[in-house]
Structures are given as structure tokens and as C-alpha cells.
Write a structure and sequence with these properties.
Elements: H1 8-26, H2 34-52, H3 59-77, H4 81-100, H5 112-135, H6 146-181, H7 183-194, H8 201-226, H9 248-271, H10 277-282, H11 287-292, H12 295-315, H13 321-356, H14 360-384, H15 391-409, H16 411-424, H17 431-436, H18 442-449, H19 456-475, H20 487-498, H21 500-503, E1 508-511, E2 516-521, E3 524-527
Helix pairs in contact: 1-2, 1-8, 2-3, 2-4, 3-4, 4-5, 4-15, 5-8, 6-7, 9-13, 12-13, 12-14, 13-14, 14-15, 16-18, 18-19, 19-20
């Protein structure tokens, strides 16, 4: 395994460069394109330093890098909060996984405990490795003495310093002339020198401090990825994560008790929920009341049952063929019943949405339930094949599928479409809730607005909401900072301009007494949805 550094300056420059870039992109700046830029540059920098150090990343590591950048793109394309949060969180997690397995690509064989172990190994290396490097900086020429190395460095630095001294008066003269020639250039130069205002000293010291801390962490991360202290052994996914300690009878009793409880619940579900709506109303509940009482609880039960299975699978002593097969039968029975309970949660959610409409939380659950069902199905297959160690990679695959589903489906756009569908059959369209949605909803709203087949009532409601949105966008036509540039915002502004003529039929005006904006619909003035009331 390679243990020496070819160019230690590449480690310093990349680590502290990423820390400085983090400060420039995120300190008191709105987040638009910032995370995509940073995560892309961080991933690329890691791979470039590996090339400089003549370390060949594993092919599977290249796949991880592509997924990381894909998640970064998701944060730029979608404005919806949870989509951005999950994409950011998972991208950072995968970046750490890339660091841990850059040379080996062993992440596909990791068990759950291996993922956890890799995180703590990175955490220790990030804090400890840089200090070992500071104590003794590696020499580019191992045979050269430290004295000769220092002299060589000084000889390289002195000409650079001399050139800077000679350039300084020339730069000052030219800057003064250019400032006199162009007032905008003068303002920019003045703004630059204003950065050194003594009033900002506290802020600058704090920023320098956290840049230094982040630089140290990034330096340790690079060293851990490219020059690990010891080569990682190939993990065995089928090796038990811990020594079984729970007796077979005890574990079987737990599984049987939970299975019979679930069986009772499933029987009732088939009698009432799966048996038809009439059976529900016969018990004195409306559809919405019955649904509201259950779907989140059922999803929670499903997650707890999955965790129970994983704990028992690791803890129960299945040291004979009979015990192993018995546990498998009970575990498959348990997970199969959980799948039926998830189907119950899905039907309850549909009943609830039919009564009250679609919201972000309900769409989140709609996306989560199928991926949890896929994970449970994978657990059944792996249990039957006696390959439980592959559950971790199945979990990772489902997690990625879940997160990418948010971006592909466009949560806010989907909410608009589904709620408009409800409005077409006579339900109320909640324009106040539509106003809470991000600019991800605008393409769907414009598409429906231009649909000539919409009833006049629904069309006017969409038009009023779009007109108010457009008025706000025109008032804030340009982002406060280039870091705030976002694809969703740019798309929305473009659509507003395209529909400017059509939206002119719904003029928006300001009422100074109420300090609120009003939109005119069919000759009648009505307040803009509350998200578009500006002070």
C-alpha cells in the first residue's frame, strides 16, 4: 500500500481551499447554486488529489461520485424544502462513504455495522491525522536533508516576494487611473477596501477560525481517503455483526407474540377496511375519521417491526438447521403481515386525501410507503436466501430511490395537479395552501392555467394565484446574490414573462390602508393568498 506523499502542498491547498470556498458560498448568503458547486468541487478535488498521488480509485467509487453530483443537481433543480434537505444530507453521507472506500470500493459489501464503523473511523482520522502531518511535513525528496529542503523552499519564495514588491506601486497607479475612468469600477474597489473595516474585525476573526477548523477536518479527510494508515480488509457481508446472545426459545416467543398480535389486526383489516366502505360506516366512523386515526401509526409500527426483526436476527442463537428454518418462517410471516399493514396505511391515506386534499406531508408518506414496502420485500428474500448481510446495501439502495423520487416526481408540482383534479369533481381548491408551495409548483400551475378545458371556477383560482406570484417575482426580479441563482426560480420567472399577456386579465393592485395586495377576478377584487402579502 502506498504510504508516502508525492506533493503535500496539494493536500493543504485542496483542504483549506475547500474550507475557504465553503465560507464564500454559504456565509450569510442565500442558498441556490451554492451546494451544487461545493459538493461537485469537493468530489472532483478528492479524485484529483488521488490522481496526483498516483492512487487509483475503485470503479465503484466512481459510481458513488456520480450519485453525489446527481444529488447536488437535485438541490439546484428543486426548491421544495425536504427534497433539498434530504438530497444535501444524503450527498454528504455518500461523500463520507466515498472517502472511506475510495481505494477499495468495499461499500457494496458493508453490513450496517460496517457503515457505522466507517463513519467513526473517518471522524477520528479527520481530527487526528492532520496533527501528525503538521509535526513532520513529508519531504518531496526523501534523500534530501531538512536543511537543504528549507533552503530550496526559501529560494523559490524570495523571487515571488520580490515580484510582488515591484508590482505593488504599479498596481496602485493603474488602479487609481482606472477608478477615475470608470465610476462603477471605483465603487467596486471601494467596496473591496471596505471589507477591511475595523468594525468587522470580530466577524473576520470568527470566520478565519472556522475556516481553519474546517481546513483541518478536510485535510484529515483527504489523508484518510488517499493514505489510510492500514489497508482495509475485504468485508464479509454474511459474517454476523455480533455474537448471538439471546436464546432461541426467548426469541421465538417474542416473534410468535408479535405475529399473533399482527394476525389479529390483519383479520380485522380484511373484515372492515379491505371488505368495503360500508363496513367502516357501519361501525359509526366516517371514511376520513377512520383514516385519520391510523396511517401514520401503521407506518411507525412497520418501522418498529423491521427494527425488531433486525435485532432478533442478529441476537437469537440459531445454531441448528431446524432453528434457522424456524426463525426464517416466523420472520417471513412477521414481515409479510407488516406488508399487509402498509397496504392498510396506503388505503387509509387515500381515504384521508379524498376527504381533505393533498399536502406535502401526505405526499411524503405516499413516496415513503412504497420504498419501505420494497425494503421489507428485500428483507424477506434475503432471509429466505440466508443472506441477511446484504440488507445494508438494500437499505442504501432504497434510501437513494426514496430521495431521488422526490426530485423526479416534483412534490409541489404533484400537489398542484392532484388538488386540481379534486377541484374538477367539485371539491374546494385551497389557493392559500398553493401559495405556500415553492416555485417547483409554477410549471404545473402554468400548464393547467393554459388548459382551455378547465372549468371557469378552477381556471380563475389558478390564474389569481399565478398573478399574485408573478407580481411578487417582478418586484424581486433579480436574486440578492449570484449564489441564490436557482433553476426553479429562473424557470418560474421565464413562465411568468411568457404568460404576461394572459395574466394581465387578472391585474394585481396594492391597498395602502390594509397594506395588502389584491387581485381582480371577473371584475371583483379579492385578496391575494396570504403568502403574497408584502409589507
Amino acid at each position: 500500500m502506498k504510504t508516502s506523499i508525492q506533493s503535500f502542498w496539494s493536500f493543504y491547498l485542496v483542504a483549506f481551499g475547500l474550507a475557504f470556498l465553503f465560507d464564500q458560498l454559504f456565509w450569510k448568503k442565500p442558498n441556490g447554486i451554492s451546494f451544487l458547486l461545493w459538493i461537485t468541487l469537493a468530489t472532483a478535488a478528492l479524485l484529483i488529489v488521488a490522481v496526483v498521488e498516483k492512487v487509483r480509485p475503485a470503479r465503484r467509487s466512481s459510481f458513488l461520485a456520480a450519485v453525489i453530483i446527481g444529488l447536488g443537481i437535485m438541490t439546484f433543480v428543486r426548491r421544495e424544502d425536504l427534497t433539498r434537505f434530504l438530497s444535501t444530507l444524503v450527498a454528504l453521507g455518500l461523500l463520507l462513504l466515498l472517502v472511506a472506500t475510495l481505494r477499495t470500493g468495499y461499500w457494496t459489501s458493508y453490513r450496517l455495522v460496517d457503515y457505522l464503523s466507517a463513519f467513526f473511523k473517518w471522524l477520528w482520522a479527520a481530527f487526528s491525522r492532520p496533527f501528525g502531518l503538521f509535526k513532520k511535513t513529508p519531504s518531496l525528496d526523501p534523500e534530501a536533508s531538512s536543511t537543504n529542503s528549507s533552503l530550496s523552499s526559501y529560494k523559490k519564495i524570495i523571487p515571488v516576494l520580490s515580484g510582488l514588491v515591484l508590482a505593488l506601486p504599479i498596481l496602485l497607479l493603474l488602479t487609481a487611473l482606472l477608478s477615475s475612468a470608470d465610476p462603477i469600477f471605483k465603487d467596486q474597489i471601494q467596496n473591496f477596501f471596505n471589507l477591511f473595516n475595523i468594525k468587522n474585525l470580530g466577524e473576520y476573526l470568527f470566520r478565519l477560525f472556522y475556516i481553519f477548523i474546517f481546513g483541518i477536518l478536510f485535510l484529515g479527510t483527504l489523508l484518510h481517503a488517499i493514505l489510510p494508515k492500514k489497508e482495509e480488509e475485504a468485508p464479509d457481508p454474511n459474517k454476523p455483526a455480533l455474537t448471538p446472545f439471546l436464546g432461541f426459545i426467548e426469541g421465538t416467543v417474542v416473534l410468535l407474540c408479535v405475529n399473533f398480535l399482527f394476525l389479529l389486526f390483519v383479520v380485522i383489516q380484511f373484515r372492515y377496511l379491505f371488505g368495503g366502505h360500508t363496513n367502516i360506516t357501519a361501525t359509526g366512523y366516517t371514511f376520513s375519521e377512520y383514516a385519520r386515526r391510523g396511517f401514520f401509526e401503521l407506518v411507525t409500527v412497520a418501522i418498529i417491526a423491521l427494527l425488531l426483526y433486525l435485532v432478533l436476527a442478529a441476537a437469537v442463537k440459531n445454531n441448528t438447521v431446524f432453528r434457522l428454518h424456524t426463525f426464517t418462517v416466523l420472520a417471513v410471516w412477521l414481515v409479510a403481515q407488516v406488508l399487509i399493514m402498509l397496504a392498510s396505511a396506503w388505503l387509509r391515506l387515500q381515504l384521508y386525501e379524498a376527504a381533505y386534499g393533498f399536502t406535502r406531508l401526505r405526499i411524503y408518506t405516499h413516496i415513503f410507503i412504497p420504498w419501505l414496502a420494497i425494503l421489507l420485500t428485500a428483507a424477506i428474500v434475503l432471509e429466505i436466501l440466508h443472506r441477511r448481510g446484504r440488507f445494508a446495501i438494500s437499505l442504501l439502495a432504497c434510501l437513494l430511490g426514496f430521495v431521488f423520487s422526490f426530485g423526479v416526481l416534483n412534490v409541489d408540482g404533484l400537489i398542484v395537479r392532484l388538488n386540481v383534479q379534486r377541484a374538477l369533481v367539485g371539491e374546494e381548491l385551497d389557493t392559500n395552501y398553493l401559495a405556500e408551495l415553492s416555485n417547483d409548483a409554477v410549471p404545473a400551475m402554468v400548464e393547467l392555467f393554459t388548459n382551455t378545458g378547465l372549468p371557469a371556477r378552477v381556471h380563475d383560482q389558478l390564474a389569481a394565484s399565478l398573478a399574485c406570484r408573478a407580481a411578487e417575482a417582478m418586484e424581486n426580479d433579480s436574486p440578492a446574490s449570484w449564489t441564490a441563482i436557482h433553476y426553479s426560480d429562473l424557470t418560474a420567472r421565464k413562465l411568468y414573462y411568457q404568460q404576461k399577456t394572459a395574466l394581465a386579465a387578472y391585474p394585481v393592485s396594492f391597498n395602502p390602508k390594509q397594506r395588502a395586495y389584491y387581485v381582480e377576478v371577473s371584475g371583483k377584487s379579492q385578496p391575494c393568498p396570504y403568502s403574497y402579502i408584502w409589507n
